[in-house]
From TrEMBL:
Ranges in coiled-coil conformation: none
Name under which the protein is recorded: Mannitol repressor protein
SUPFAM superfamilies: MtlR-like
Pfam families linked: MtlR
């Protein structure tokens, strides 16, 4: 499992919201894979051969969304974590299918962040109606501040989700 600093570094390397969300999903995929290994991968050869074939890249349980459902069904992860990661998967799909470039302060991203269960301090987020006049230096500075604030809130949320996936197997 990665430290908070490495998570922050990976997310900060992303230049766009599309890259940021892709990096977040990759982090979740890695954390879920580690958790699946803790829960299912045993040393017993018979169990190992069956379980490995299910979770391999071509196996029926290879997709992140399916592995999340398995972990939720077993009570390993909470409903909130399941919903948040699923929301990130849906946002990634939406951003990949959208030809327009989005930014952290866009209404789409703001409303997405407001809906995350793991992000508790919603008062930190700017409101959608705070539109800045981008033709002035002050307007550009306020917009950049808004972008940084949303990005920081998302990083904190992703780090919290990742931390909750870094548990020992309860089974």
């Amino acid at each position: 499992m990665l430290s908070d600093d490495l998570i922050y570094e990976k997310l900060n390397d992303a230049a766009s919201i599309r890259g940021f969300v892709t990096a977040a999903v990759a982090l979740f995929d890695e954390a879920v894979d580690c958790l699946i290994n803790k829960v299912f991968r045993k040393n017993d050869f018979a169990v190992k051969s069956v379980v490995d074939s299910l979770f391999e890249t071509s196996g029926p349980l290879a997709a992140l969304s399916i592995r999340l459902k398995v972990l939720l069904g077993l009570g390993v992860i909470s409903q909130d974590i399941f919903e948040d990661i699923t929301a990130f998967l849906q946002l990634k799909e939406q951003l990949n299918n959208d030809v327009d470039e989005h930014y952290f302060a866009d209404e789409l991203i703001l409303s997405f962040t407001h809906e995350l269960q793991s992000f508790k301090d919603k008062a930190l987020l700017p409101t959608e109606e705070m539109v800045e006049d981008l033709s002035t230096l002050v307007g550009k500075m306020k917009q950049q501040r808004k972008e940084n604030l949303v990005r920081s809130c998302l990083i904190l949320t992703i780090t919290e989700i990742y931390r909750q996936l870094a548990i020992e197997s309860p089974l």
